[in-house]
Design brief:
Distance between the termini: 31 Å
Strand order of the largest sheet: 1-7-6-4-5
CATH topology of the largest domain: Peroxisomal Thiolase, Chain A, domain 1
Order of helices and strands: EEHHEHEHEHEEEEHEHEHHHEE
Structural class: alpha/beta
Number of strands: 13
Radius of gyration: 19 Å
Largest sheet: 5 strands, mixed
Bound molecules: oxa(dethia)-CoA
CATH class of the largest domain: Alpha Beta
Length: 332
């Protein structure tokens, strides 16, 4: 029997309507359109507005569209992973809530937190269940409502993040398509540079933590930038070398969208031309766990069966990683 691999059979996304532009941010904090564009490459980000709406609403919207698009009945799905840093609530898992909202009754579902590398961690985890033969229809969701943890008085972070969700359906392939290899890494020493100070078990929510604005993203941009540039490029080059790939063999680089300069540095190190890099940071900003599926979703029609894709990410933790996959279908 030929070896099973996990192939992406379909992709969908959910992007909230409201667009927060650089011009609007100019009115909120001491910043300029020019500073934001030159330092980050971000023009707008989408924000989920509406009382009582959370990460699971965007996740469920993406999953419902994915089920319809791939002609999959909810009861056929046997596993759901949601990568997120903005769960609806501390518990239960947002993946449980998404499953419930989508009528997925026969799956086990859980959340996975690896910050901006979460979608890659979740994809690699899901692929092992498919490769073992134990699971046949697995949904991986990358979703974040970053606006729920962004301080809109802090000009160093509020310009960066947006809200969105993306979801893929993984199934077994006997043709060698799909996820071929993954390299994942983490270093908890990096936590000091990027974290949320309160709301966890070390510092539960209190009047003091709210007054001190400790429930928002805290980031020291420069050290994160430095580690992101070197680690994301290193891991992407490592996966190429490990699999005997040259830049000519790669159809697309799919990088996490945190900063245009980090994306360009990674592509340069890999020897990939800009036209082969999926870049939509200008429209969506950094949507944390949703950046990579949002890119693949937008480029889906340009992908052909057998295309080699390299996915690469870096995020809080620190966490970083790369996945090499062969695209599974022509989508004309
Ligand atoms: O996705 C998870 C991982 N996260 C990342 O990969 C983010 C990595 N870091 C970055 O992308 C960049 O460090 C930032 C975009 C966050 C910041 O860009 P930078 O070029 O590193 O700027 P900086 O932090 O060195 O700040 C330069 C100056 C400072 O002023 P002084 O000290 O030179 O007077 C900042 O106060 O720019 C100032 N500044 C701003 N000015 C206008 C910071 N934010 C702003 C702003 N508008 N929004």
């Amino acid at each position: 029997m030929s070896k099973l691999t996990a192939v992406i059979r379909g992709i969908e996304a959910s992007v909230p309507e409201y667009e927060l532009t650089n011009k609007e941010l100019e009115k909120m904090v001491d910043t300029t359109e020019e500073w934001i564009m030159t330092r980050t490459g971000i023009h707008t980000r989408h924000i989920l507005k509406g009382e009582g709406l959370g990460t699971s609403d965007m996740g469920a919207d993406a999953v419902n569209k994915l089920l319809a698009k791939t002609n999959t009945k909810p009861e056929e799905v046997d596993m759901v992973i949601c990568a997120t840093v903005t769960p609806d609530m501390q518990f239960p898992a947002t993946a449980n809530i998404i499953s419930d909202k989508c009528g997925i009754k026969n799956a086990f579902s859980f959340d996975l937190n690896a910050a901006c590398s979460g979608f890659l961690y979740a994809l690699a985890t899901a692929s092992k269940f498919i490769e073992s033969g134990s699971h046949k229809k697995v949904i991986v969701v990358g979703a974040d409502k970053m606006s729920s943890i962004v301080d809109y008085t802090d000009r160093t972070t509020c310009i960066l993040f947006g809200d969105a969700a993306g979801a893929v359906l993984l199934e077994p392939s006997e043709e060698g398509l799909g996820i071929k290899d993954s390299i994942l890494a983490s270093d908890g020493a990096g936590r000091v540079y990027l974290h949320q100070k309160a709301g966890g078990s070390v510092k539960p929510a209190s009047h003091e933590t709210v007054d001190a604005r400790e429930h928002y993203v805290y980031q020291e941009g420069q050290p994160v930038f430095k580690f992101a540039v070197s680690n994301m490029a290193d891991v992407a080059v490592e996966i190429m070398e490990k699999n005997g790939l040259t830049s000519d063999d790669i159809s697309w680089l799919v990088p996490h969208q945190a900063n245009m300069r980090i994306i360009e540095a990674t592509a340069r190190r890999m020897g990939i031309k800009k036209e082969q890099v999926m870049i939509n940071i200008a429209k969506y900003g950094n949507t944390t766990n949703a950046t990579i599926p949002l890119c693949i979703w937008e480029w889906e029609k340009q992908l052909s069966k057998g295309d080699n894709l390299i996915l690469a990410a870096f995020g809080g933790g620190f966490t970083w990683g790369s996945i090499y996959l062969k695209w599974g279908y022509d989508s004309q």
